Amino acid sequence: MAVQVTESPKGTAVPTAPVTPAASGPVDLGPAAALSCRECGQRFDLGPIFACAECFGPLEVAYDLPTGDPHALRQRIEAGPNNIWRYAPLLPVPADVAAKPNLNPGLTKLVQADRLARELGVTGGLYVKDDSGNPTHSFKDRVVAIAVEAARAFGFTTLSCSSTGNLAGAVGAAAARAGFRSCVFIPHDLEAGKVVMAAVYGGELVGIEGTYDDVNRFCSELIGDPLGEGWGFVNVNLRPYYGEGSKTLAYEICEQLGWEIPDQIVIPVASGSQLTKIDKGLKELIKLGLVEDKPYKIFGAQAEGCSPVSRAFKDGHDVVRPVKPDTIAKSLAIGNPADGPYVLDIARRTGGAVEDVNDEQVVEAIKLLARTEGIFAETAGGVTVGVTRKLIESGQLDPTLTTVVLNTGDGLKTLDAVAPTTGPTATIKPSIDAFRAAGLAS
Amino acid sequence: MAVQVTESPKGTAVPTAPVTPAASGPVDLGPAAALSCRECGQRFDLGPIFACAECFGPLEVAYDLPTGDPHALRQRIEAGPNNIWRYAPLLPVPADVAAKPNLNPGLTKLVQADRLARELGVTGGLYVKDDSGNPTHSFKDRVVAIAVEAARAFGFTTLSCSSTGNLAGAVGAAAARAGFRSCVFIPHDLEAGKVVMAAVYGGELVGIEGTYDDVNRFCSELIGDPLGEGWGFVNVNLRPYYGEGSKTLAYEICEQLGWEIPDQIVIPVASGSQLTKIDKGLKELIKLGLVEDKPYKIFGAQAEGCSPVSRAFKDGHDVVRPVKPDTIAKSLAIGNPADGPYVLDIARRTGGAVEDVNDEQVVEAIKLLARTEGIFAETAGGVTVGVTRKLIESGQLDPTLTTVVLNTGDGLKTLDAVAPTTGPTATIKPSIDAFRAAGLAS
Asked: Matching Pfam families, A to Z (chains A, B) (predicted)?
């Protein structure tokens, strides 16, 4: 195998990642045993593939999960690092993953939101899982962290993705830290602030003259071209591994609740992958005996301007009809969500629902969360909090049960959403008289 | 004592914080025993005061620190929550602090920065203490969290401050979470983005027609006025408590290094308070036997455009001559740093130094940290990394020793600093030919 060498500061040659993908040989991804097709069940060797060769269904990771005493496994997890690698025995990563350079996301705060609960009338316990605490301030750090380890195992040297926001920064940062080259593709007319967030990590950042769809189409072409050899596209040819990162949200929520599954979870739906993987994670915890088996309800949250799954849920359809997104919740604006049918299935099977709120309600909910709990959420967090309120009002979510609401991103990245309606209470001259006149001294 | 009541969702009256400050009675702030003057040593009862009645010197918290087996204390700390409250026995907070609503900052990552170390030629171990992981993404969450508990103890109902940036958001968020009213004063012409970050938490935000100095002068007036009764200004009448929050940086760094003091620490200098409190924290750890006593060197980092302490250090002066700040590192732009003389003393006593870098070097250092470690730092982080490089080049910092560099804030808040020089590598049409022509496919 060809090995790339670089000069260390002392002038000695040190090996870095190999140049050619080593996908043909056996790879060590811990408990990951194979890839299996979610549609037909066909199994494949672990490798950088993402669609079933038989039926074109999506592939996901199948595991040989640890057997034995659940208490011992709990203790092992609790003694692990303060990040997602504490769950390495349940993830497609090698056992020594914590020793490799990675951004080490996860173990973000599960905030007991008593003041928000009072506003919403929740009496059974309300918690916000706040993923703005991740290294680049969104849940994408979780999925990218797993993709990085898969890329390492397969011998890729470049990390790539198409993105209009959170993912670009997460990939750029993770690649920098892990010592990969990165090349991220964005629509050429992205807002200046987002370009800076994606470019600052020093990887290649390529503006594509076209829409986001054009960017995606180009990336698919590149994967099939010799030019793309050695490239791991985190959400394409590494997608089966990448997606598993979302399971850690389920693990953390349960561990942080004292190894208990909450009664209800409200999850944002973009592609739907996150919701399906959280469900997968909960089922694993039950199977392993790490938590007691109990019923739980999973709710999906969308923005009205991009609500194909919510629409299908309400209409009682199994098929999700694509839409053209038009919402301020850009991180959820996937008009043709790949995992939409699975989301419908999980919401219906667990007795949950999929609901949507309009942009005005998103902004109101962002502000509600900020003024009650001091959490400044991205628009996606406004969607979940707003949907939670709506589900309580409609009686679909039971306020007497324990409820966890996800905030998957950071308000600093979507300032524009709240800027028009967020400003100073007053502007005054620097004098006590002026302050008294403003009537703010209560 | 008057107690304010509010309506709970169920219509029953629930007591909240008392209206009148209870500063006269004894307060429970854990191991905090008194306030003592840093100049003349005079002691005062714990209360919302900040200057010595004898000599006008600054007051700081004096403790009755825990005695006994250091191993037991270590274990107690290690079993504590994953935030600054694990150090409650060493902070001016009640023993049950972790049960009160607070943003619970701290235990941010200490990143082993091997790739940055290679670029800088550090062989003794280089670590970045990354405080962008705090709830509002700056170290200010630490100091405000302590001020909140002091405000609670003194019966204040409004939290306030003057600010041009990080502090406004930290106070707004902490007040929201803890159930205080907040009223934050800012210069009226602050950038729109910063206004949103300060206003989104729903407290009062007052623009003052004048400069930042005018804002400060107005706040000092307000503290002395009956209108300001019941108000805790976190960095004025609560300053002695507030400042103690920075000690937690010292505690965490040492615990994260396996209860060892690093040989060298590079700390940004604005007012100088953070640096002096980190030194205080290290001395406490030694006194308590939590770490072994050993020599350590403390380095202060400033931006050239606001470098009064660095200037005094180089000139061999004990007095810091005020300057008019002109730098992109706005979070460090304090032209007349209150703790400047103490910083000089600590740097000289420990064998460290105070150095400065220009704005261009700040931007270069932000990018260096981003592309080596995936950490997008605020300008203050560019200052510390830039100064570290400069100190190594001049031989003042020993690259063979263990070194910790602080990043105290988040690049998302100072995008303007890097925007002019950070953009796409290329812009191309969505075709393989165009990509090949761009020469990025290596």
From this structure: PALP (PF00291)
B154 and B168 both lie in a single domain: yes
Q: Is B200 found in the same domain as B123?
A: no
CB pairs under 8 A between A and B: 246
Say if the Cβ atoms of B227 and A435 lie within 8 Å: yes
Together in a domain, B323 and B372: yes
Residues B326, B180 share a domain = no
Contacts of B432 in chain A (CB under 8 A): 218, 221-222, 225, 227
Contact A435 B218 (CB under 8 A): yes
Task: Tell whether B88 is covered by a domain.
Answer: no
Query: Which ipTM was obtained for this model?
Result: 0.93
Task: Assign residue A313 the CATH number of its domain.
Answer: 3.40.50.1100
Total residues belonging to chain B = 442
CB A366 within 8 A of CB B176: no
Question: Which residues touch B52 (CB under 8 Å, ≥6 apart)?
Answer: B37, B39, B40, B42, B44, B58, B59
Residues B132 and B205 in one domain: no
Question: Of B107, B115, B422, which is closest to A200 when you measure between CB atoms?
Answer: B422
Domain range enclosing A325: 110-136+245-421
| B232 and B366 inside one domain | no
Among B205, B222, B242, the domain boundary falls at B242
In a domain, B12, yes or no: yes
Q: Are B209 and A375 inside 8 Å of each other by CB?
A: no
Contacts of A225 in chain B (CB under 8 A): 432
The neighbour count for residue B15, using CB atoms within 10 Å, is 9
Please report whether residue A317 resides in a domain: yes
- Spell out which residues of chain B touch residue A2, defining contact as CB-CB under 8 Å: none
Same domain as B275, residue B176 = no
B402 and B318 inside one domain:
yes
- Domain count along chain A: 1
Judge whether A53 lies within some domain. no
- List chain B pLDDT tens, one digit each, 442 residues: 233 333 333 333 333 333 334 445 689 999 999 999 999 999 999 999 999 999 999 999 999 998 889 999 999 999 999 999 999 999 999 999 999 999 999 999 999 999 999 999 999 999 999 999 999 999 999 999 999 999 999 999 999 999 978 999 999 999 999 999 999 999 998 888 889 999 999 999 999 998 888 898 999 999 999 999 999 999 999 999 999 999 999 999 999 999 999 999 999 999 999 999 999 999 999 999 999 999 999 999 999 999 999 999 999 999 999 999 999 999 999 999 999 999 999 999 999 999 999 999 999 999 999 999 999 999 999 999 999 999 999 999 999 999 999 999 999 999 999 999 999 999 999 999 999 999 887 6
Is A196 in contact with B419 (Cβ distance < 8 A)?
A: yes
